[in-house]
Amino acid sequence: MPLKIERIYTKPVDMNGYRILVDRVWPRGISKVNAALDDWYKTIAPTKELREWFAHDPEKYPEFKTRYETELNANPDLQDFLNLIKDKLKRGNVIMLYGAKDETHNQAVVLEDFIQDKLLQ
After folding, report:
1. Splitting the chain (121 residues) into consecutive groups of 10 residues, what average pLDDT does each group show?
2. What is the spatial distance between Cα 4 and Cα 59, in angstroms, rounded to a whole number?
3. pLDDT by residue (tens digit) across 31-40?
4. pLDDT at 11
5. pLDDT at position 31, please?
6. Closest CA to 84 of 106, 48, 115
7. CB–CB of 22/41 below 8 Å?
8. Confidence (pLDDT) at 25
9. CA 69 to CA 15: how far, in whole Å?
10. What DSSP designation does 44 have?
11. For residue 14, what pLDDT is reported?
12. Which residue of 14, 69, 77, 97 pairs with 8 in a disulfide if CB–CB is 3.0 to 4.6 A?
């Protein structure tokens, strides 16, 4: 089954799957009821320091990607997160939700590629 990413502020494209928020901070203006989440895995998101350094600047994205992947590899929750994703993908879609406005330069894009690489190893 597919692993997808979706911006939490857009009308849900797909409600068919395990919906997990991968931001460290709860998205402004979104109620927990309307988010329709199955899980919130904030410990897998970039650290506050990395997030603030990046500031969603597309020019910094390549370096952000490298730094975030380094953080992920050192994250003590990584294996539990990967096991969760792998388990959920056996049963259906997994939709990782994020709040960033930029749909191509954000942590969910990095995380999606990172997970695909790790699960294919």
Report:
1. 89 80 94 88 96 96 98 96 95 94 96 91 66
2. 25
3. 888 888 999 9
4. 74
5. 87
6. 115
7. yes
8. 94
9. 28
10. G
11. 65
12. 97
Let me know: does 92 contact 16? Beta carbons within 8 Å. Answer: yes
What would you report as the CA-atom Rg of the chain, rounded to the nearest whole angstrom? 14
How is residue 68 annotated by DSSP? H
Task: List Cβ neighbours of 107 (8 Å cut-off, separation of 6 or more).
Answer: 22, 23, 45, 46, 51, 68, 98, 100
* Beta strands across the sheet bearing 3-7: 3-7, 94-98, 18-21, 39-40
Residue 16 sits at the vertex; the CA angle it makes with 8 and 44, to the nearest 5 degrees, is: 50
Q: Which domain, by its residues, includes 16? A: 3-120
Strands (E), the chain: 3-7, 18-21, 39-40, 94-98
Q: Give the ranges where 1-121 is alpha helix by DSSP (H).
A: 32-35, 48-54, 61-74, 78-91, 107-120
Q: With beta carbons less than 8 A apart as the criterion, state whether 34 and 56 touch.
A: no
Using CA atoms, how far apart are residues 85 and 93, in angstroms rounded to an integer? Answer: 10
